[in-house]
Amino acid sequence: MRMMTPLLAVDAIILFRGGIVLIKRHSPPYQGCYALPGGFVEVGETVEDAVKREAREETGLDIALRDLVGIYSDPGRDPRGHVVSVAYLAEGRGDLVSGSDARSAEVFPSQSLPPLAFDHKKIIGDALRKAGKINAKQSN
């Protein structure tokens, strides 16, 4: 009997030039829709290394991880199957260029985001709340 287990993925909420970096997906599911940069963790890779790799592959940016936003495990969050995502808040550095699975990579103000794939609207909301708490702690 083959054991079925969820797949592990990562998502990056990248703060860059006063906004949030989103990619336009090149492939299904949600082909042509905006989403957070991210993807599947490779065997032998940590989630931290995976999110940095995916960000670089899809946006051209190097990222500095600020904080773990959360773990998203709703079995229905991805139409391909049960995918658990680990989401990180990060700051981007470098030049924004789309690559690999992204048709484009763009910066959007957090107050005017386009419709998003998967549960990425919720993830961004959680990240912005966390970023506000981080900034409040740093000012004290």
Compute the CA-based radius of gyration.
15 Å
At the fold tier of CATH, the topology name is Nucleoside Triphosphate Pyrophosphohydrolase
How many helices in DSSP terms? 2
The proportion of residues forming helix, as a percent range, comes to 10-25%
Task: Tell me the CATH architecture.
Answer: Alpha-Beta Complex
| Percent strand | 35-45%
Taken in chain order, the helices and strands follow as: EEEEHEEEH
Task: Report the sheet with the most strands, covering strand number, pairing sense and barrel closure.
Answer: 7 strands, mixed
Low-confidence stretches: none
Whole-number count of domains: 1
Overall residue-averaged pLDDT value: 94
Could you walk me through the main structural features you see in this protein, from its secondary elements to its overall organization?
- By secondary structure, the protein is α+β, with helices and mostly antiparallel strands.
- It has a single domain (7-139), classed as Nucleoside Triphosphate Pyrophosphohydrolase.
- Helix content is 24%, strand content 36%.
- The protein has two helices and seven strands; from the N terminus they run ββββαβββα.
- The protein has helices at residues 47-59, 120-139; strands at 7-16, 19-25, 34-35, 38-40, 62-72, 83-93, 102-108.
- Strands 1, 2, 3, 4, 5, 6 and 7 form a seven-stranded mixed beta sheet that branches.
- The radius of gyration is 15 Å and the shape is globular.
